[in-house]
């Protein structure tokens, strides 16, 4: 305990050069992806890349975030397998790790125990936190979390076991073969646009929730915390930009009070899954509870 307090006090960032190098290369190649998008890439490749990217993003929002991290609803096995597949394609760490980091983010928001502590500025909360070793407080506080629900979920544990083999293939190899085989696309153009560029766009959309939506926007539900309501982030992150609401009511499956499906595509996805019976026990905040909370801690004058 004493040793941990000392290391935590004198902690200074230890850069992980492997991650710096990989993310740099990825971003350089993605620039070529934008060039191909504007010039030689075929329309079917672009349409496929867009739809595929949008669908796999739901693996993060509907799957990793609203189902596994917050248990906002329950999902039958076929939906859990489908969402796990989509989340694997996004190459954003195994669900087990993603959820562990996200739960510690909610429990210790914007402190040293938050992996992407936004009090350390835009860059750190956006992507800098992936370029350095974690603060000792993240690991110490993270060890106190209850992750038994994840350990009991065979889908999560299967993905964890085989992640290093399955994820790179599903994310950075197979998607490129589709336009090449079906649309006669050049294989390199296909790889740069549907693998690299898609990955980079999904990463920044996700990271914006931790950075932009912890810095800019309104706070109608709790003015005493950093997370904000930000419509731009809500659009690019399928409804996850209503972040002041989400930090106050993390268990709400809509992750928002207002807004429509256009600014919350993930709610549309869950509602559809509920209609076909694959999602159930959807949790949501009552209007009365919401009204009281807004009056008590919100930033609006009534
Ligand atoms: C990526 C993830 O980008 C993005 C997540 C963002 C979440 C946003 C959420 C917002 C809401 C949802 C929005 C969705 C929007 C979607 C839009 C879609 C269009 N608790 O991590 P290690 C322990 S990934 C407890 O290596 P280091 C544990 O024992 C991108 N314990 O720490 C662990 O061992 P093990 C690709 C913890 O060495 C051990 O420590 N990936 C916790 O400091 C070591 O863990 C990358 O770029 C905890 N929380 O390294 C880099 N954490 O795992 C991938 C750790 O065996 N990451 N422990 O149990 C790394 O390289 C490293 O993690 C590191 C830190 C260098 C960052
Ligand atoms: Zn947050
Ligand atoms: Zn959350």
Automatic annotation (TrEMBL):
UniProt family annotation: Belongs to the fatty acid desaturase type 1 family.
Protein name as catalogued: Acyl-CoA Delta(11) desaturase-like Protein
Organism field: Tribolium castaneum (Red flour beetle)
GO cellular component, as recorded: endoplasmic reticulum membrane
Localization per Swiss-Prot or TrEMBL: Membrane
Membrane protein topology class: Multi-pass membrane protein
Single GO biological process annotation from the record: unsaturated fatty acid biosynthetic process
GO molecular function: iron ion binding; stearoyl-CoA 9-desaturase activity
Transmembrane regions: 20-41, 47-68, 162-182, 188-209
InterPro entries listed in its UniProt record: Acyl-CoA_DS (IPR015876), FA_desaturase_dom (IPR005804)
Domain of life: Eukaryota
Pfam families for the chain: FA_desaturase
Entry keyword set: Fatty acid biosynthesis, Fatty acid metabolism, Iron, Lipid biosynthesis, Lipid metabolism, Membrane, Oxidoreductase, Transmembrane, Transmembrane helix
Chain ranges of the Fatty acid desaturase domain: 42-250
Gene designation per UniProt: AUGUSTUS-3.0.2_15108
Cofactor: Fe(2+)
UniProt domain comment: The histidine box domains are involved in binding the catalytic metal ions.
């Amino acid at each position: 305990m004493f040793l941990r307090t000392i290391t935590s006090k004198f902690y200074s960032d230890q850069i992980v050069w492997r991650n710096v190098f990989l993310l740099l290369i990825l971003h350089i190649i993605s620039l070529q992806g934008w060039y191909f998008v504007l010039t030689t890439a075929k329309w079917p490749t672009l349409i496929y890349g867009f739809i595929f990217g949008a669908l796999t993003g739901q693996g993060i929002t509907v799957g990793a975030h609203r189902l596994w991290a917050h248990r906002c609803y329950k999902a039958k096995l076929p939906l859990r397998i489908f969402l796990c597949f989509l989340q694997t394609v996004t190459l954003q760490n195994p669900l087990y790790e993603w959820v562990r980091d996200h739960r510690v983010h909610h429990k210790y928001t914007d402190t040293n125990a938050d992996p992407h502590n936004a009090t350390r500025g835009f860059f750190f909360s956006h992507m800098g936190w992936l370029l350095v070793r974690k603060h000792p407080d993240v690991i110490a506080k993270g060890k106190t979390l209850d992750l038994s629900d994840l350990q009991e979920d065979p889908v999560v544990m299967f993905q964890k076991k085989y992640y290093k083999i399955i994820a790179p293939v599903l994310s950075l190899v197979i998607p490129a073969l589709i336009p090449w085989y079906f649309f006669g696309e050049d294989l390199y153009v296909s790889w740069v646009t549907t693998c690299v560029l898609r990955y980079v766009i999904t990463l920044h959309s996700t990271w914006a929730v931790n950075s932009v939506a912890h810095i800019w926007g309104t706070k109608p539900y709790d003015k005493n915390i950093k997370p904000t309501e930000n419509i731009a982030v809500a659009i690019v992150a399928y409804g996850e930009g209503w972040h002041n609401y989400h930090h106050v009511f993390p268990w709400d499956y809509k992750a928002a009070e207002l807004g429509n499906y256009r600014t919350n595509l993930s709610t549309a996805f869950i509602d559809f899954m509920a209609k076909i019976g694959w999602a159930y026990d959807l949790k949501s905040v009552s209007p009365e509870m919401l009204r009281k909370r807004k009056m008590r801690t919100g930033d609006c004058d009534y």
